[in-house]
Write a structure and sequence with these properties.
Largest sheet: 4 strands, parallel
CATH topology: Transcription Regulator spoIIAA
Shape: globular
CATH architecture: 2-Layer Sandwich
Structural class: alpha/beta
CATH superfamily: STAS domain
Strand content: 15-25%
Order of helices and strands: EEHEEHEHE
Length: 94
């Protein structure tokens, strides 16, 4: 079973360090990020998430993002021009 991290509603510069710490604590195992409550995604947290994706890829572990019914996280991610993350609806697996 994958470890899970629930992302806060606001992923801004103030959230970046805590986000990095929480994600790295799950390194070496499959990880699901629950982005269903995200209302705002800032550039620094985007970098943390891009780094997590690269780290999990390098470790050969899956990293999945769940967004529930919300498109806010995916829309803001795409607005940065970042390559799409693997996303799934709540309860689905990727």
């Amino acid at each position: 079973m994958a470890a899970a991290v629930v992302l806060p509603a606001v992923l801004d510069i103030r959230a970046a360090d805590a986000l990095k710490t929480e994600i790295l604590a799950q390194r070496g195992q499959p990880l699901t990020l629950d982005a269903s409550a995200v209302e705002r995604l800032g550039g620094l947290c985007l970098q943390v998430l891009l780094s997590a994706r690269a780290t999990w890829d390098a470790d050969g572990q899956p990293l999945t993002v769940t967004t529930g019914d919300s498109t806010t996280f995916s829309d803001q991610w795409a607005a940065f021009g970042a390559a799409p993350l693997d996303t799934a609806s709540v309860g689905a697996t990727a």
